[in-house]
Amino acid sequence: MGRPAGFPLYTGLQNPDFGKVAEAIGLWGRTVAKADELEEAVITWLNEPGPALLNVKVDTMTLVMPPKIEWGSAYGMVLYSAKAMLQGQSADVFAMNRENL
Predict the structure, then answer these.
(1) Where are the domains of the chain?
(2) Of all helices (H) and strands (E), which one includes residue 54?
(3) Confidence check: pLDDT of 52 > 60
(4) Which of 71 and 37 is assigned the larger pLDDT?
(5) Which residues contact 54 (CB under 8 A, 6 or more apart)?
(6) DSSP, res 51
(7) Strands 52-56 and 28-32: what pairing?
(8) Structural contact between residues 100 and 18, judged by C-beta atoms closer than 8 angstroms
(9) SS3 for 64?
(10) Inter-helix orientation angle 90-100/71-86, to 10°
């Protein structure tokens, strides 16, 4: 059972500010969008005595690189790129490569 041709691999849905959602239900919550704010936010988050949520916004095209690249991960990336290109999503593949290379 596969995905229909032309069906996107992701959605265009916009997430809420999860830091504010956490605050709305009585938890400690914070959203960080800048790298220079991250370290202080993580320290504060880890020192919270109760439930806490730290929402970190990242660029959607940024890849998380593992310490060691395994064959399966590389194969999956090549497979994704090939399928995206064949389905007319070459702009997404080029944007991802531009952001990460």
Answers:
(1) 12-57, 59-101
(2) strand 52-56
(3) yes
(4) 37
(5) 19, 29, 30, 32, 41, 42, 45
(6) -
(7) parallel
(8) no
(9) coil
(10) 140
